[in-house]
Amino acid sequence: MDYSIIESYIDRLIAETKPEAPVWNIENIRHGKSAAWNYIDGCMMTSLYSIYRSTGEKRYLDFIDNFIDYYVFEDGSIRGYDLESYNLDNINEGRILFDLYRETGKEKYSKAIELLREQLKTQPRIAIGNFWHKKIYPDQVWLDGLYMAQVFSTRYAAERGGGDFSDVVTQFTNVYEHMYDREKRLYYHGWDYSKKAFWADERTGLSKSFWLRADGWYTVGLIDAIDYVTAAAAREKLAAIFRTTIEGLEGYIDPRTHMFWQVIDKAEKEGNYPETSGSAMIAYAMMKGARLGILDSRFAAVGKSVFDGICAKYLGFTQGKLNLGGICLVAGLGPENNRRRDGTFEYYISEPVVENDAKGTGPFVMAYTEVKHLI
Fold it and tell me: Which of 10, 44, 126, 259 makes an SS bond possible with 279, Cβ 3.0 to 4.6 Å?
């Protein structure tokens, strides 16, 4: 595999992007949405910062600063951001603000961090402590939300919150205790604590299926949070959950493609397919976990084989350009007025599959930065 082409692919995406019109935000493009703060761009900013740290090439940092500068105003307010929607997705892009504040010293980035922190202070919670995923999803915990909010929360606790990681540990632990199927060794996508949602099991409140990217979000959220935890007991608690999670997922690697399937436990069921974004997330988590000493060192090679599988199947030239395919555009649960999103196998395989969306490209680039540690 000639890995050098990956950086040329990244450079093309950057060259074709303006802050108000990123080429990797396929949802915005398809729906004609105006530019606003969102988690999809956040995935890409995090990955580009990892490339900057890996290569030392300042042009990456300059691009990130220029991009985020467009969205964050001098008073710390954020373009298109609505605190009172209580949407955990909107916290994700806040991760890059810590890095930009340190790199540039721009006070507006610090102010924006505090604005996002204000949301989390009043974010609605279920009775045992976890955040609602969004205000429009009462009493619902989604795996996605652990990635979206808890890495930011962990870093805030480490740098501005006095090192108190108790809430972070509680939220990850509750998911492990209530959403993990110990027989399947996989996590359900969603959990309705109230058991009222149309997609929720009447007895458990859990959704119906194991969606790959949801398990990927949770897994990457764990390893990225662990990276910032400075308290030994909290770190080991999260590390134990992470090891169990990875060891369970390993058994679902497809021996032919070395990837994971869109609905993880339904390999080769008609309509299912090896999916890029979740595979890249887990590949990244495996390699990073091994590098940090959280996992056995053999997982570096396992994660790299998953990454190589993605490259072999979905990274290729179309119309003269290098593109990354096999990316599920989006999936979710509900709300009540969208009963198509019911958490079934049939639903997850019905969502569009696209190229170059940052929900796949971002994790792919993150995994690539881990590969660079190995070659």
Answer: 259
